[in-house]
Amino acid sequence: MIEGIFVDGLIFSIMVMGVLISYRILDFPDLTADGSFATGAAVATISIVNGYGLLAAALLATLSGAVAGLITAMIHNKLKVPGLLAGILTMTMLYSINIRILGGRANVPLLKIDTLYTKMPEVFSFLPGPWALLTGTLLIVFFVKILMDLFFRTDLGISIGALGSNEQMIISMGINPRLLKIIGISISNGLIALSGGLLAQYQGFADANLGVGMIVQGLAAIMIGEFLFSTNKIFFITLRVIFGAIIYKALMFLGRYYGYYIHLTPSDLKLLTGILVILSLIIAQTRAAASSADARKKAIRRNNERRKGLNEEKNNA
Amino acid sequence: MLNIEQISKVFYPGTVNEKVAIEYIDLRVLEGDFITVVGSNGSGKSTLFNLIGGTFPVTSGKITLNDKDVTHTPEYKRAFTIGRIFQDPTVGTAAKMSIEDNMITAYKKGMKGLKISLNNTKRAYFKEELKQLKIGLEDRLKDNVGLLSGGQRQALTLLMTVLSKPQMLLLDEHTAALDPRNAQIVMDLTTEFIEKYHLTTLMVTHNMQHAITYGNRLIMMDEGKIILDVRGEEKKQLTVLKLVDLFKKIKHQEYSSDEDLLAP
Q: Which of B55, B76, B88, B148 to probe the A interface (max A CBs under 10 A)?
């Protein structure tokens, strides 16, 4: 059972890394995620059903998400609408497109067909079934994490980070901020769609409603991660995201399995997620206020000491 | 170097808020010029800088940079030639990133690729460059820029701007938000860099003494026009008193002509 939570959390963590790029690194609240997650699931499922192979399925899923991100970024850039609205537009359109991809159905199963998750027990046959799935997923997540870490050490990656922090600086350095946004949002949604593709294979079906509420869940995971430790190094930021994603999934598991003691139903979990995000925001705010109050007190103390010193000098003279 | 012909800027045209910020200005900036720009609030200094830098388009007129027409060139492309520093020290650097990450972004202008340029050679080079600021930043390469004081950030912005090798500097009151000591540090660094890298410079300042001490030419703006243009020997003879006198004289002429108009 515990392995299941980890596998679920690890697949989810790739999605959260995508949200991290848009929401935290680019400072672009991108709601495309709710659509592109299901797009990734749909594309991967249909690719597998049509026998394109597992690698092609993963690549196509990633690509489909990247295209969705590209569309959001283009709407935002060309029509000068806020990122939030651009994302909602793409997300809404994607709902119809996802059903088209699934061949007019809202749900396509992956039964009696090879997927990554039926292959993993064969590859890691020396491990008991659930642990094989966990090992396989762990490898995929570490591969993605290392690629992320490397990318954000490159000149391009660093300038995308700088864009999120200060757009004027990017312009002053002779870089077109629109192009950077397109690249960043595309990568973000590529990861989100890849995560959707993996989840479809893990649970054995793709569903047009798979992505509903993804962005908020991603935010919750990011914020949980940020409570663990503070850092400005990309290696630890992505590590934090993986931990946050697993903890989030564990919390939701607890809510589902033990929630009935307090009359919780699975449909309450979205409410819980929202409350979790709000709580995180409140705690983060109180922490910031506390640390600035602390700094203020220290400054007053330093000032008083300085004044005392000056007075003594005067008295001595 | 920079040639401005008959440019004007009208904000909110056709509305009740319509405002003519720049009224048909001509300005020719030669290579190696260091021009100080003075004028009261709302006289159009910052608008002029925004038009030169390309933040927003001109309403009419033409701007040429190095004999190339850049009137419709976007800001990020003009930035290859023009380095800008703003009054707000937070505008020039990315607060959420380390000093070294900020410097690597500034090191080469233009779109970046998938190369990892930040290595130990670069770090050593950045350290050397930071040392000349003499504010102890050379040991804080990995600290986030958000932890620095306003003066430190502005000095870093200045260094990053010159490292990116522009030909021209636009300084928009870049020491106005700093305390006197830090303002002096940044101002000294500015003149040092301008000489070292032979930068053509335009500097807006509210400090009349700075406007007179620095540079080889001084222009005064008022209500979207250049009302005074002093250079060479004549500028060397200027004092704050003389400058204020000149300003009063020009303004007085206008007032008296207005009075003439209103007289029965």
A: B76
